[in-house]
Amino acid sequence: EPVLYIVATPIGNLGDLSPRAQEVLAGADLIAAEDTRHTGRLLAHFNIKAAMISVHDHNERQRADLVIRHLQEGDQVVLVSDAGTPLISDPGFFLVRAVREAGFKVSPVPGCCAFIAALSVSGLPSDRFLFEGFLPSKSGARRQRLEALRNETPTLVFYESTHRIASSLDDMSSVFGAERYAVVARELTKTFETVRGGTLAELIDWMGADANQQKGEFVVLVHGAQSQGPVDLDPEALRIVRLLNEELP
Ligand code: SAM
Predict the structure, then answer these.
(1) Is 132 in the pocket of ligand 1 (CB under 6 A)?
(2) Whole-prediction pTM value?
(3) For residue 25, what pLDDT is reported?
(4) What pLDDT is recorded for position 229?
(5) Which residue in 144, 146, 148, 151 sits closest to 220, CA to CA?
(6) Which terminal Cβ of the chain has fewer Cβ within 10 Å, N or C?
(7) Element (H, E) at 47
(8) What is the mean pLDDT of each run of 10 residues along the chain (249 residues)?
(9) What pLDDT, on the 0 to 100 scale, is given for residue 231?
């Protein structure tokens, strides 16, 4: 039976590519990759040879048609992204939906996901969390998003890059308050893996004092808002407070 496999790849340490992932990649007739050169290096490391096509945000629709044609011919197709689990802040959503709608099986080969790895070592509540991925790149839109999250009680999980980590922490501090506890997980599974917890103010100071700590890839996890006050109000009072909140600047 032709299948589209969604295969997770390492987020740093190549030892994290599972035996089954290697097997499925080696058996693929076609590998759809976010960046074929990047995936080419991964495949070369494992001595795997396969035909590749690129799938990124700008060509996913055409690529879906091509992948479906391959499946119709009985080919095994694999989707990978540059790192971690495809579709998690990565391309693939349109492809998976189109392939499923065309009636083909889509099967996961699970593995690394940066935010799950970060959550598992953060020491923050993990029973409920809100994965937000990347915040908007412009500060105005970013603050607006953060405002909308200010009273959320689950642990908040964000992806961040070298370029914006400092300004994002600043915005989080001004919106959530400098005393909100957070954890920064940097370069997980790589040489300079660092996981650091503290108030947002402490984290900003620590990062400001050491420019090396601003380099690499980050997951930022923020403790949820403490639930208090409004939950004890009667529902009608709560409704009015919400209405007022929406109207006020
Ligand atoms: N699909 C990936 C996954 O499953 O985690 C995420 C892809 S997203 C384009 C890349 C972002 O993931 C980075 O900017 C960073 O926020 C996070 N990330 C990826 N690798 C990481 C690592 N080794 N340590 C910390 N964060 C990482």
Answers:
(1) no
(2) 0.90
(3) 98
(4) 54
(5) 146
(6) C
(7) none
(8) 98 98 98 97 97 95 96 98 98 98 98 98 98 96 98 98 95 98 98 98 96 95 82 68 76
(9) 52
The three-class DSSP label of residue 107 is strand
How much is the pLDDT for 8? 98
Q: Give the bridge partners for 194, in sequence order.
A: 186
| Rama region for 7: left / alpha / beta (φ>0; ψ in -120 to 50; rest) | beta
Q: How far apart are CA 131 and CA 35, in angstroms?
A: 24
- DSSP per position, 122-154: H-S--SSEEEEEEPPSSHHHHHHHHHHHTT--S
CA dihedral 207, 209, 211, 217 (to 10 degrees): -10
Contacts 24+ apart (CB under 8 A), 29-33: 29/70, 29/75, 29/76, 29/77, 30/67, 30/70, 30/75, 30/76, 30/77, 30/78, 31/77, 31/78, 31/79, 31/80, 32/63, 32/67, 32/77, 32/78, 32/79, 32/80, 32/95, 33/79, 33/80, 33/81
Ligand 1 center from residue 74 Cα (angstroms): 33
End-to-end CA distance of the chain: 57
Q: What is the CA radius of gyration of the chain?
A: 21
Q: Residue 63: its pLDDT value, please?
A: 96
What is the residue type of 116?
I
Query: Is the shortest distance between the CB of 187 and ligand 1 below 6 Å?
Result: yes
113 CB less than 6 Å from ligand 1?
Answer: yes
CA 238 – ligand 1 centroid, Å: 38
Task: Count the neighbouring beta carbons within 10 Å of the beta carbon of residue 64.
Answer: 20
Residue 21: count of CB within 10 angstroms of its CB: 22
Name the residue with tokens 């506890």.
Answer: 181
